[in-house]
TrEMBL record:
It comes from the Bacteria. This is SnoaL-like domain-containing protein. InterPro entries: NTF2-like_dom_sf (IPR032710), SnoaL-like (IPR037401). Coiled coil: none annotated. Pfam families: SnoaL_2 (PF12680).
Length: 113
């Protein structure tokens, strides 16, 4: 049995998981503000077009949520740890979403053990 009922979590997180599962770049991008920033160890994607470019590449890996291991939220911040399949291989993922006006304004994301 899953530890978290995804549908009961923050609506921005639910929309993001649904968009990623559908591999739908337009749905993903609707979740971000125009001045969004995505920070990863590989670098920062600053602005909506840079975020689009990053996610266009990410979706080629066919990300699939396997298990949401830890999750906590406030009104405007979501912090999570999960196992994602990328090209069919499990990866430990973690990140933070900071929400402004119902969309992702700032995000950190990483993979590792």
């Amino acid at each position: 049995m899953a530890k978290y009922d995804i549908s009961a979590l923050h609506p921005v997180f639910v929309r993001q998981m649904d968009a990623l599962a559908a591999l739908d770049i337009e749905a993903v991008m609707k979740n971000y503000t125009e001045d969004a920033v995505l920070v990863r160890f590989e670098g920062a994607s600053v602005g909506i077009e840079a975020v689009r470019e990053t996610f266009t590449g990410y979706l080629t890996l066919k990300p699939t949520l396997v298990e949401l291991q830890e999750y906590i939220e406030t009104d405007d911040t979501i912090f999570y740890r999960a196992i994602m399949n990328l090209n069919g291989a499990p990866e430990h993922a973690f990140g933070t979403l900071v929400v402004r006006d119902g969309r992702i304004w700032r995000q950190t994301a990483g993979f590792g053990s």
